[in-house]
Amino acid sequence: MPIIHIEILEGRSDEKVRELINGITEITVQTLNVKPDQVRVIIHPIPRRYWGVGGITKEE
Fold this sequence. Notes:
Layout: E1 3-9, H1 14-32, E2 40-46, E3 52-53, E4 56-57
Parallel strand pairs: 1-2
Antiparallel strand pairs: 3-4
């Protein structure tokens, strides 16, 4: 049973998150030859103030 964790910046719509989960599930099914109900996708939205790039937060 594949378990896939994805960290993304918060703020994406529920629709976009559902599309991401669906797409990741489809490619995992094709690549690993597993059934869709065996795939687990967990989305971890990260607040912009906790995501740093180049020494500053994405909120800045």
